[in-house]
Amino acid sequence: MSDIPGDLKFQKSHEWVRVEDNGQARVGISDHAQGLLGDLVYVELPKVGDKVEAGAGCAVVESVKAASDVYAPVSGEVTEVNEGLTDKPETINEDAYGDGWLFVVKLDDPEELDALLGPDDYAELIEHEE
Amino acid sequence: MTQHTILNATHRAAGAKMVDFGGWDMPLNYGSQIEEHHAVRRDAGMFDVSHMTVVDLRGARCREFLRHLLANDIGKLKKPGKALYSCMLNEHGGVIDDLITYFLDEDRFRMVVNAATRDKDLAWLEKQAAAFDVKVSERPDLAMIAVQGPKARGKVLGLIDAGDRERVEKLGKFVAAEARGPGGMPLFIARTGYTGEDGFEIIVPEQHAVALWNALAATGVHAAGLGARDTLRLEAGMNLYGQDMDEDVTPWEAGLAWTVSLDEGRDFIGRAALEKQKAGGVPRELIGVVLDDKGVLRHGQRVITQLGDGEMLSGIFSPTLGKAIGFARVPAGARGGLRVDIRGRQLPLRAVKYPFVRDGKACEGI
Question: Which residues 85-124 of A are in CB contact (within 8 Å) with B?
Fold first, then answer.
């Protein structure tokens, strides 16, 4: 298990959020989630301009094993998507918290972040899962 | 209750991700399924297939029994050691299982059947064998390791006792022989496999299996899990029981016509039903399909054709080809305008001749 960066917040369904300097939120799936999924082979991302809603499905990641929905951890408008994943979905396996990000959201309501888990709580959650 | 092969602790010590497969706790992968797949295509990989069921048949009327039991003709096996792939059918022509039978000598044959179908296979064998005075014995004391890939044979040969090596090296495809392995351990080595690569499937007494596995690892053979085994066999165009055929499907509908021998005067179980279906027109067929768009084909997806709906059988993302491939069961004759429904989106499918991959490369037209 790789270390979980301290600036991330998590949803129980294994998505992470990083609030950047401009106030926008970058979203990805956790290293734990990519490990469970196995080698990723396909990613279906939202489009720039799409509205995503916290808790609702907004992307799909498919591994050699199965397809999994990605649930938006926060609500807002998508301002950027990681186009590089189309040809290299394995980037998520290699760097889930860095180059393997999925999309960036302009937050509707920053208070939604308060409902998410901090790194320690998330680490505890996945420990109990195992 | 979950069963463990003798190599279970070895897999776990190697950090394998374990899954339940037909009631067995088996390694899905040891890290990266795709890397394991490529290791088999490019070098050599090994699979623990000890969960599969080895059954020995004994009796003077073995051959007569197998002529009746199997849809393929056991008469094709003329030299000891030779193996035959066949379906075992019920009276309706449905597939009870697919299996390999080895001819050892006239009153001794060996079968390898699937793990998930073990109970019903043994029951069926016992039932049918009684009339032929053939004794059916399961061999839970035997483990099995498949070593596959372009470098597989060379690596195995290096572990064979010098006195047996030349004989094993000369084994033709689909032929088996007994030989001594590391430390003189007794091996039953068959030049067969389920990956489309050359190699051996080795049956070994359970107490020697870990030593053999470790000796293979020491020669640089990569451990590979069931995940890679599935993508390798599908690229090679091989069926998987339960996914591509079952008791409600005939060999005609499963792309297995090549394994059915309608030889003159042989009354095998299911023959009448097969002949009847053939005469009346086989309603469905199995075809190979490629998805050129991005996405992954999966078992159970709806396939839309001009002649009505079909369904995806085995479907995978092919690591060798970099796109999704699979088998589909469609109304007979459906070829053009095929589409697959993936989460509500309809994407075009291309019907192709399979295998999809041979000798590590894409086949023509894939």
Answer: 86, 90, 93
The ipTM is 0.84
A-B CB pairs within 8 A amount to 35
Q: Are strands B142-148 and A51-52 parallel, antiparallel or unpaired?
A: unpaired
Identify the band that residue A2 occupies on the pLDDT scale cut at 50, 70 and 90: low
At the top level of CATH, which class does the domain B1-282 belong to?
alpha beta
Do the chains contact at A38 and B231, CB–CB below 8 Å? no
For residue A59, give Cα distances in angstroms to A41, B96, B233, B315.
14, 40, 30, 21
Taking every pair of C-alpha atoms in chain B, what is the biggest distance, in angstroms? 61
Per-residue confidence at A1, pLDDT binned at 50, 70, 90? Answer: very low
Structure tokens at B126: 């016992």
**Mean pLDDT to the nearest integer, B350-364:** 93
What are the backbone angles phi and psi of residue B151, rounded to the nearest 5°?
-100, 5
Asked if the C-beta of B299 comes within 8 angstroms of chain A's C-beta atoms, the answer is no
User: SS3 sequence, A70-93?
Assistant: EECCCCEEEEEECCHHHHCCCHHH
- Give A-chain residues touching B317 at CB under 8 angstroms: 41-42, 62, 64
Yes or no: domain B283-366 corresponds to CATH 2.40.30.110? yes
Asked whether A54 and A108 are in contact (CB, 8 A), the reply is no
Give DSSP secondary structure letters for A28-45: EE-HHHHHHH-SEEEEE-
Min Cα–Cα distance to chain B from A23, Å: 33
What SS3 class is residue B288? Answer: strand
The domain tally of chain A equals 1
Residue A1 lies in a domain: no
A66 vs B contacts (CB less than 8 Å): 298
**DSSP codes of every residue in B129-151:** HGGGT-EEEE-TTEEEEEEESTT
